[in-house]
Amino acid sequence: MTAQIIDGKLIANQLLDEIRLNIEGRLHSGKRAPCLAVVLVGEDPASSIYVRNKQIACEKVGIISKAHKLASSITQEALFSLIKELNQDKSIDGILVQSPLPNHIDETAILALIDPYKDVDGFHPFNIGRLAVRQPLLRSCTPYGVIKMLQASGISLKGLDAVVVGVSNHVGRPMGLELLLAGCTVTSCHRHTKDLAGHIGRADLVVAAAGKAGLIQGEWIKSGAIVVDIGINRLPDGKITGDVNFESAKQRAGYITPVPGGVGPMTVATLMENTLKALELSEQS
């Protein structure tokens, strides 16, 4: 068996086209376009690339993007002040603070300060809580992007035994909540899990989000299982790889996402969708 490769870039472009048409329709009816404020602290090369990709996506769909590039020496108080200004600015619909932040800044406090209705990353405790009680509002971009990608691939999730490897607040935990909402039976695995291979071997769906290159071996995968690799790891030679041993896993899986070209584009597309939704929510209030 050779797995069907899920083309996240293709599906993301289809979603971006839908968002673009929606925004064009808004403009034709006299409404305004959404506006996203992106805050980048420091000169981290990877963060700069991520921010640029998000700005390109904004240009593609017609979202106004306002960049705030700040020195890594900025104080937490000054960053707090900027977030509060953006919260009060009615022309700003979404606020994104690119991580990681410098060590002297409390990222948890910054994310909690963002207006939950402008939290287009879906990281605020309010939005994670809404998802937990099955009343999602703005949903974490990567987990929600995974759900939309699987749905677009014609995969039914109801009743599947799903394993999520990784329990970070940004990806692993909301991913588990998204899969519960979709009707899966969910097991969350982490560094204290005993017999990781055994859990994976019983799973109909494996979502890898540990951030450790090659952690999941192909022979662990149940025949015909769906494998979604969220991991992004840079090897010493500069190549990007996921958490799953792709070459061996694709010989056993029914569906599998590549890295790069799988989940990454869906994350950006879902961010655009969240920004549009944030504007729509503000119009309803």
Automatic annotation (TrEMBL):
Residues 6-121 form the Tetrahydrofolate dehydrogenase/cyclohydrolase catalytic domain. It catalyses: (6R)-5,10-methenyltetrahydrofolate + H2O = (6R)-10-formyltetrahydrofolate + H(+); (6R)-5,10-methylene-5,6,7,8-tetrahydrofolate + NADP(+) = (6R)-5,10-methenyltetrahydrofolate + NADPH. PROSITE patterns: THF_DHG_CYH_2. NADP(+) binds at residues 166-168, 232. Keywords: Amino-acid biosynthesis, Histidine biosynthesis, Hydrolase, Methionine biosynthesis, Multifunctional enzyme, NADP, One-carbon metabolism, Oxidoreductase, Purine biosynthesis. Pathway: One-carbon metabolism; tetrahydrofolate interconversion. Its EC number is 1.5.1.5, 3.5.4.9. Homodimer. Catalyzes the oxidation of 5,10-methylenetetrahydrofolate to 5,10-methenyltetrahydrofolate and then the hydrolysis of 5,10-methenyltetrahydrofolate to 10-formyltetrahydrofolate. This is Bifunctional protein FolD. It comes from Methylophilus aquaticus.
